[in-house]
Amino acid sequence: MALGLRDNCEYEGYEVSVARDGEEGVCRALADRPDLILLDVMLPKLSGLDVCRRLRDGGCVAPVIMLTARGQEIDKVLGLELGADDYVTKPFGVNELLARIRAHLRRAARPAPGVEGYTFGDVALNFRAHEATKAGRALELSAREFEILKYFVRRRGEPVTRDQLLDEVWGSRYPFSRTVDNHIAKLRQKIETDPSDPRFIVTLHRVGYKFLG
Predict the structure, then answer these.
(1) Which of 65, 75, 176, 183 satisfies CB 3.0 to 4.6 Å to 86 for a cystine?
(2) Which domains can be identified in the chain, with CATH numbers?
(3) Could you give the CA distance from residue 41 to residue 50 in angstroms, rounded to a whole number?
(4) C-alpha span between 111 and 119 (Å, rounded)
(5) How far apart are CA 89 and CA 197, in angstroms?
(6) Residue range 153-180: mean pLDDT, rounded
(7) Sheet of strand 86-89, all strands in order from the earlier edge strand to the far edge
């Protein structure tokens, strides 16, 4: 399958590097910084889920499309929680996969309009450098959390639905909104003084969220 995907992607004009196991995939991705990663869940040495986690922890922000023969929702949810951007279940059509690749590359190349930095409360964000502080101390935010905050800042004061967040931050819409809820809960733990009574990211019952920073 890897060779077939390589041939099809090279035919489309992409430069392709193939890793045979999870450990090699992590090393290559962190060293070469590819524009996009196709990642099979079932890999030797390290699973695709572990690879995804290590890449995001290592600062890799390239779009990740996960490939798997397993169709259970829990796998899809876990992959997205770990930082994957899209999910394709085998068997899949090559043309569909190539279309998703093109869509994610376009999205990744498109600059976010007008937001380079923002400050609210005691939190300061630098979106260009992917740096954040709270009360003057470094704040560890994932690439996904930066994207969520960037979208909130652009829509501050407006109601934002879970589907909008999935579309704009994850790049596709999925039938499980708890992916968004779990990310928001983790983000509140980092930026809110009292996560149980949030001041900046408030929940709108039956709608979604509103950013009041």
Answers:
(1) 65
(2) 2-109 (3.40.50.2300), 117-211 (1.10.10.10)
(3) 9
(4) 20
(5) 39
(6) 79
(7) 37-40, 64-68, 86-89
